[in-house]
Amino acid sequence: MSTVELTKENFDEVVSENDFLLIDFWASWCGPCRQFAPVYEEAAERHSDLVFGKVDTEAQPELAAAFDIRSIPTLMIVRENVAVFAQPGALPQAALEDVIGQARALDMAQVHKSVAEQQAAQAQGQGQDAPSSAGEAPGSGASGSGAQGPGAPDASA
Fold it and tell me: Fewest beta carbons within 10 Å, which of 12, 95, 106, 110?
């Protein structure tokens, strides 16, 4: 499977329609991005059951800003509307395969439970009621970010 170009117009739809999405934030002028591109494309071919998206940070500055992308390339993995991994840097093939394997192995019921607990703790600390949906959370996992669209991520969690 080839990669999908993600834009502010299609981002929410692609994320909501796919339970497992890898996102490569990149730019054409970025040497490490160009180095990582074939590794990412080959992984997309090997893992045809997953969706591999690319965000051109020059063409989509709103998406890059929404996810607080400060270094490219940055790889993000979103499972069930929760960013479970985000890391800058061009990964070699073996490292990318390892990250994909770890993301596949996550117990998403536990991730969603952790997200809900984090929301409740944050709401108590702010004197607010907790949000009702775990998918709307500042997330859990390696990145600590939630992901349901350009307005929602909170990389500071």
Answer: 110
